[in-house]
Amino acid sequence: MGIDSTKSKCPGQDTAFWKPGDIYDVTCAGCGREIEFFKDDATRRCRHCGTLVKNPKLSLGCAQWCEHAKECLGYDPKEMRENATVGGETQVDELIAAMKNEFGDDQKRITHALSVLEYAEEIMKEEGGNPKVVLAAAILHDIGIQEAERKHGSNSAKYQEIEGPDIAKRIMKEVGLDTETIYDVCDIVGNHHSARCEITPEFKVIWDADLIVNIPERFEGRGTQELNEKIEKLFRTETGKKIAKKIYIKDEEAK
User: Fold this and answer.
1) pTM summary value
2) CATH topology of domain 89-254
3) What is the pLDDT of residues 171-220, one digit of tens each?
4) Residues 108 and 213: beta-carbon distance below 8 Å
5) 20 by DSSP, 3-state: which?
């Protein structure tokens, strides 16, 4: 039996009941930047360097034993403990390392990819999708941008989509991803601006995560009403819309 959506969120996970100290900064071991954590965040990935940082003050409250914990948190605390591993890089870490190597000292594009990854993870918790495809596509969606500039003298969407899939395919083969995942990710990378591919749940997640990060640049100077209309028109998931409005539109106007 699931949670009755008409009821209010349980006090243990409702931020309205939290204390000021339940949201805090943790220093990234990879680069020394500060990362904001909520007390029930198990991990967060640094947007600057990509390091996966564990929450040293993780406090799950009632979610440690509640049968509905996954519906509240987006992950099952019991599964997280059972699946925890020590040492070694995950494929996500390897993909991030490869992306960073491809971009070199282009920190702007590295940060963009890691920001898209973070929002993609957040949207996927609510909307679903194949995690391997979503995470790999988020990291590699713009991987062809530098090659587009080198070969075509332009980083326009058309050239990114031409050059990106081959680079993404090479990286994913080196990391050891399966053929089906590679195919699905390359389909997204080669169409993430034009949307000429099949509009899968994974594509929708990447589309919205990328758009969230690009809003300040794409719609700079737009009024609240116009921005709200753009969000309603362009986004493909309800979760993506909700996140975009929370970030870019005043709370009272986003209701």
Assistant:
1) 0.71
2) Hypothetical protein af1432 (1.10.3210)
3) 999 999 999 999 999 999 999 999 999 999 999 999 999 999 999 998 98
4) no
5) helix
